[in-house]
Write a structure and sequence with these properties.
The protein has about 250 residues and is mainly β. It has two domains: about 80 residues, Sandwich (Immunoglobulin-like), CATH 2.60.40; about 130 residues, no CATH class. About 5% of the residues lie in helices and about 45% in strands. It has two helices and 15 strands. It has an eight-stranded antiparallel beta sheet, with helices on one face. A four-stranded antiparallel beta sheet has the order 4-3-6-7, with no helix packed on it. Strand 14 and strand 15 form a beta hairpin. It is elongated, with a radius of gyration of 26 Å. It starts with 8 loop residues before the first strand and ends with a strand. About 20% of the residues are buried. The mean pLDDT is about 95.
Amino acid sequence: RPPNPNAPQIEFFTSDVLAVAPGQSLTLYWSTRNATNATIYRLEPDGTRSQLWNVPPDGSLPVSTRRSDRDRVQFVLAVGESTQRVEQMLELPLSCPDTWFFEGGPETCPQGPAIESQIVEQEFERGRMVYVREMNRVYALFNDGLAPAWVVFENRFDPAIHPESEESFIPPPGYLQPLRQLGFVWRGNDLVRNRLGLAIMPEAAYDGFAQVARTANNAENLYVSSANGSVLRLAPEGESWQIITAP
């Protein structure tokens, strides 16, 4: 069946730049044939169409990218209806404005600059706990093979009203009771206490970094400095955690 010469067509869909930095603006240009109007969509990383512009069949459109955009920005130009609908996608790479705080970081761009923070870490019989002061979060990382592999809590420890330890609890020789932020979570949560067991090393306080990269579905991979100079990676939603760089 020969093509319909009167069907809508897209002659071109382009921009004034070949690449763009997050937060900067660009201008889209397009031209169509046999169409009375057109629609431009912005695509999110998961493929959803989050923004819509009703535009003439030929023209230009200034568009701002977001500071939080990463890797690439995508747009779709559509003309026609039903069986005569025609679409064309335009993809522009995004430069990465931030660098990882450690060597050998992921190829994906971090969501923002590294957060410099005091960090407290302690090893337990079956895992470890990490407190990141600037994020005000306490993480419990388990190595018992059960799910979830890690959990996170907002820090609720207040030294003005909470004791740093439970004086009536005396751990067996060779073991320790966690203190302050770590101890507050450990004492108050049965799951954390039962899965981690007792502390086997004193807590280590140090200056380090935390940094986030987002997946296509907007979930977070968290990277945190460890006390021995390595980096901990916490996969989204407690799925897993691992040491990704050697000391």
